[in-house]
Design a protein that fits this description.
This protein is an alpha+beta fold and about 90 residues long. The protein is built from 2 helices and 5 strands. The chain has helices at about 25-35, 40-45; strands spanning about 1-5, 20, 55-60, 65, 80-85.
Length: about 90
């Protein structure tokens, strides 16, 4: 079981929790696991075709999944998944 750190913008989707536990052999399976319990979670992270949204950064143990195997990155018990939505803006 892995720990998913939930950013503030997604906490309403998971009942206000900061961290949720999830199971899965890959990050995609883990996201699906959380989405089954908290519908709408995956839609915040993935495009309709299943690809990672461009402005959502996902890390497994502080490693950006874009430099690993993307959503097919293996996940093991005790791994920490961090989700960071990109923030842009200014004057």
């Amino acid at each position: 079981m892995a720990n998913v750190r939930v950013p503030a913008m997604l906490r309403p989707t998971v009942g206000g929790e900061r961290v949720v536990d999830a199971e899965g052999a890959t990050l995609r399976e883990l996201i699906d696991n959380v989405d089954r319990r908290h519908p709408g979670f995956a839609g915040q992270l993935l495009e309709t075709d299943g690809a990672q949204r461009r402005f959502v950064n996902i890390y497994v143990n502080d490693e950006d999944i874009r430099y690993l195997n993307g959503l097919d990155t293996p996940v093991e018990t005790g791994d920490v998944i961090s989700i960071l939505p990109a923030v842009a803006g200014g004057n």
